[in-house]
Amino acid sequence: MRNLVSAISGGLFGLGLLISGMTDTAKVQGWLDLFGQWDPTLAFVLGGAILPMLLAWRIAARRKVSATGDAFPALPEPLIDGRLLTGSALFGAGWALAGFCPGPAIASVTWGGLGGGVFLIAMIGGMVLSTAVGKRRLAAA
Amino acid sequence: MSLSSIPSDWIFGLAGGLLIGLSAAILLLGNARILGASGILGSIVEGSEPDATTERLWFLGALIGVPGFAVLIFGAPETSVSGDLPLLVLAGVLVGLGTRLANGCTSGHGVCGMSRFSWRSIVSTLDYLAVGFVVMFVTRHILGVL
Q1: Is pLDDT above 50 for A141?
Q2: Which chain B residue has the Cα nearest residue A38?
Q3: Across the interface, do A60 and B107 touch by the CB < 8 Å criterion?
Q4: A54: domain range?
Q5: For residue A113, which of B85, B65, B81 has the smallest C-alpha distance?
Q6: Cβ of A49 under 8 Å from any chain B Cβ?
Q7: pLDDT tens for each residue of A86-132
Q8: With the C-alpha atoms ordered A95, A100, A105, A109, is the resulting torsion angle positive or negative?
Q9: Which of A6, A31, A33, B38 has a CB 3.0–4.6 Å from the CB of A102, allowing a cystine?
Q10: What are the pLDDT digits (tens) for A6-40?
């Protein structure tokens, strides 16, 4: 059941990324080009994606557990630390340079060519690197 | 303003966005999981949550397979990926490292977190958007690359 739900969600997510234009890096970079030829499409993507989730969170608050009987994830403490700020900034820089964020980079790997594959492998490398940064921080603390 | 004067890209963006939100709602209400692409891939790569690995592999399989199948039938859309491989390596490392340090990306923080008014997600989203705007301005309009 959990696997089926995951597969349905992943498939719809991929179709949504494809239809919305999020897998076209030029379109994403056009959205980030606020001071040039700005392309507002991503505002519609983000707005459209947030609408069903506003409803979903309201349903979750009422039902307490999911269809598979698990408690919903708790709202994280509003901890704004250097890790959150630095990480988000690094992500923003990489997002602008390539026009890919993680979802579209994964979804488009079958048609993204050599460049798409290189980006995905480098992104996985960056994820591995993050564990080393985390360990160093733990050792320092 | 008539309906036909609305750019079709905006309508496709909204339709695709609604599908993205629906997929996140299904994962939340079905499995009590946050749909975050960087967390789903990252936790598998790092082996940090072995109990969730199987369902996450199903997610990733469908995330690659379903649009891949659609592309087989309808043809591949433009990805416009840069041919500058060193630039892609740098960008990929920044995205992978950054999203894991921040514990989320466009889907986890931008869609799932913002829609529940999580402060961490709101701050993260404003942060990566602001840096994205600045880096795009500097690289495209000052340095003349991209």
Answers
A1: no
A2: B133
A3: no
A4: 2-140
A5: B81
A6: yes
A7: 999 999 999 999 999 999 999 999 999 999 999 999 999 999 999 98
A8: negative
A9: B38
A10: 999 999 999 999 999 999 999 999 999 999 999 99
Q: Which of A17, A34, A108 sits opposite B20 (nearest CB)?
A: A17
Indicate yes or no: CB of A70 within 8 angstroms of CB of B31: yes
Question: Among B122, B143, B124, which Cα is nearest to B132's?
Answer: B124
CA distance to partner chain A, nearest, from residue B3 (Å): 16
A132–B contact, CB cutoff 8 A: no
Report yes or no for ipTM above 0.90.
yes
* pLDDT tens digit sequence for B4-61: 788 899 999 999 999 999 999 999 999 999 999 999 999 999 998 999 999 999 999 9
Residue A118 near chain B (CB below 8 Å): yes
Q: What token pair was written down for A96?
A: 């602008």
Q: Name chain A contacts of B29, Cβ cutoff 8 Å.
A: 56, 59-60, 63, 66-67
Provide the residue type at B52 as one letter. Answer: A
CA distance B32 to chain A (A): 5
For residue A64, the model assigns a pLDDT of: 86
Residue extents of the structural domains in chain B: 3-142
Ranges A14-28, A65-79, B14-28, B103-117: which has the least confidence: A65-79
Nearest residue to A5 (alpha-carbon basis) of A71, A66, A86: A66
Partnered with residue A71 across adjacent β-strands are A65
In this structure, are residues A95 and A101 in contact, taking their beta carbons and an 8 Å threshold? yes
Candidate from B29, B59, B141 with C-beta closest to A7 = B59
Cα angle B100, B101, B107; round to 5: 50
Nearest to A5 among B30, B93, B116 (CB): B30
